[in-house]
Amino acid sequence: MGNAPGFGEDDLRRLAGSRSFDRGLGYLSAVSALEIGDGTIAATVDGTDAYEVELTNHEDGLTGWCDCPYGQEGNFCKHCVAVGLTVLAQAESVPRQRAAAASRTQQLDTWLESRSREELLSLVREHLAGDRTLRRRLELRAATSGDDLDSVRERIRGLLDTRPFARYGYVEYADTRAYGLQAAEAVSALRTLTETGRAADAVEVAREAIVALGRTYGEIDDSDGVLGDVASGLAEVHLNACAAARPDPVRTADWLVDHLLGDLNHATDIVVSDYADVLGEAGLARAHELATAAWRNNPKGWSEKYLMEQLLKTQGGVDALIAVHAADLSPTGATHLVIAQELERANRAAEALDWAERGLREAEPDRGPDSRLVEFVCERYTRAGRPADVVAVHRDVLLRRRTLAAYQGLRTAARTAGCWDETERARALDALRADTRPRKSLGHPGSVLVDALMDDGDHDAAWAAAAEGFADDRQWLALADHVRDRRPADALRVYLRLIDPLLTRTGDATYEHLTELLLSTRACHRALDTQDAFTAYMTTLRAGQKRKRKLTALLDQHGL
Fold this sequence. Notes:
With 560 residues, the protein is mostly helical. It has helices spanning 9-24, 78-89, 94-114, 117-130, 132-144, 149-159, 173-195, 199-216, 226-245, 249-260, 276-297, 302-315, 318-326, 334-345, 349-362, 371-383, 387-400, 404-417, 420-434, 448-455, 459-470, 473-483, 488-502, 508-528, 531-544, 549-557, and strands at 31-36, 40-46, 50-58, 61-66. Mean pLDDT is 86; it is low at 438-444.
């Protein structure tokens, strides 16, 4: 974090929202026990209760945690704001406070090192008597240092048990953090087993822990990724234990394939290629045998296909990998692209382009082609000096998928090839004019023709197309805004038509939109020198809308 806090008021306001930020201002005097470390800030804030707050400055930005009810729902609450503002108010002293924290840590270390064995034992026992969590952690450490594997297994199973934290069979967000801290102890215990020469035991128990966590993963609200970290930790511990213990490669392959194709594989990030050294030739052969049989039985299964991909990439079988992809081709052409990329990486450029071109041909009109596939082919045509073919690809895309993005792509390609104004623009606009289907995928039923003409800056042609029935209200409004200075009378008719249906509606968004339209209407009347008509219009409108207090306040605010 350096010497500065690493965040500002704008960050706090953005994270909390205006309401919580403003409320946080009232809690500045309630902040106590402030501790500023390197990357973390901890404090207590007195509210309805004494709440513990922790701010952390990551590379991705500031995050906050508070144990108040609102904070436990994952919100950056007013207490977090109060702590953040307190730190900002003390910005000049932040380096000194960090140094003081480091000094206290060093002082504590020195003091502990000066105590006798008996004094330290007495101190630990004193804390064990009043801290059940610490006692459980040390009991687990004691178990992992002994020879009783069943005891270790039982305690790790207990650490992963969600029942003490579950309400109605589900661990809610507010309780996930506490459960995650407990479950993380299982990772530490398994790591200790490996480090103390019991890697074979760690392999066995880690597999059981991975299965146990997988069974409960769907019963936990892990919005913050706390359990994801635990799952990743278990996967890492298992891999490291395997690397140290060198278990039977065939049995290890059996377990990996069974896990990766099972219903509980979603919790961990286990990748079979990471185990290549552990598996060796025999284990990889076994994994390939099992994965191939599973894939042939279910060639469209995601897990089966992904496992085959990983194994084939590990073993370097490009043609076999292509066969896996080719067995389940996407209607968008995305799989064709994957195959083309694999071939290109294998220095088989001609075959790669063939597959990509095949993807363009075979993509279903309503599903593709995938834009990345189009880009792949066009980049290679451009390198080969084939601009006309680039134009042809984009022309075909527009005919298949008549969208503004497709039109823009064709325009760029045709301008590069020098044929946009001569032939391609007229051809493209004719294609859009012939297509009167609603554009539901764009969120409105307007015509792409109008959008394309406006994107070209040809607003008069766009207006003419709109007048022929090709435009919706969104497009009419955009057109009116564009031509208002040149054609105020035409724009005025659009604004008045759009205002009418809003007069029967309520809500803040409606009032804001209505006010914007009225401001535009006033601008048209001023351009036409008909302000008296606007005044009379507003008098009638206000009389009819007088019960809408928020609307009246907005109109007053803008002098309407």
